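re: that chain from earlier
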Amino acid sequence: MRRILGIALAVLLLGGVIAVALAGGEKTPSTATKTVKGVIGSEKSEYFRDPDVVKALADKGYTVKTETSGSWAMDQLALKDFDFAFPGSSEPAPEIEAAAGVKGAQTTKPFFSPLVVIARANAAKVLADNNLAKMTGKNSGTLLMGPYLKAASEDRKWQQLSGSAEFAELTGTVFIKTTDPATSNSGALFLAAASNVANDKTVVSDDAGIDRTAPLMQKLIRVQGALEPSTDDPFRAFISGSGEPLILAYESQVASLLQQKQAPGDMVVLYPDTTVNSPHTFVPISENAKELGSLLANDPKLRELAVRHGFRPQNGVPEFTAATASHAAYLNPELAGIRQVSAPTVKILMALAARAKG
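^ sequence. v structure.
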């Protein structure tokens, strides 16, 4: 009798294994019905790779595959191979639409992220002691663009700043490491903000304005040497302890790092007192992706996940503030004391970038 029972149990167990194998193990079947491919700025890579984002999109019927590119270089790609483009701001969108043959497409701005300068604690202290920055806490402050740009125009070196002698790592010309302004959104928008300050706090709108501001823009860019195509590599280098003492980044990169409870090291976050906001703009190219931008902007779960990755949903200051409350020592949720300005036209900004690179 025991032998018969043993054989019966073995048969039942084997049947169960076969049933699980046929059902695909314990995996939950995907509900996605559309597979779409998009080109995005690298700052959104982790968002689209997040398993929770993948699941939330699948629950709404989408499998999303992405490739990265500098936002201002997207219009040079074979856009017929993509269902959507998702640059880091609204300025490149018209060029992308025209290149893709979808001029007048219904673009969406699901979330945005202001630019920040992340600094080593020693560098931030020296900047503040020399009135180039103002500290609002141990790990946060404001970069004073007027004084900083004056120092840049004079090729000021760290050694010329009071209090720098005790920090051996602060040598050479004071500069902020940016991305390539001809192809990358963050680099281009930093030039937009800097040129506004240099142009008597007015948007550069003509050749005379370009001529007036170009020499300073050249100083900001040429001193950096080789330019990075995206903010991702310089940010990772900074967090690892290498890289320059002053790095241009998106606030979203900082907020995401903090919410993931990764060690920020001796990072200080400086918000430029003049900035151009960066609304990430979804450009649908194919019919399959037509509704995806609206979904990213309005679905509660996807908005929650965007905040977790450091982005600010449109009209979502309370959401961002609540999610980052425990990291207020680094962030400025209300963007208090920040002057937000418009960017020049694409034609003017690209001319500024070309002149800056020489």
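Confidence is low (pLDDT under 50) at residues 1-28.
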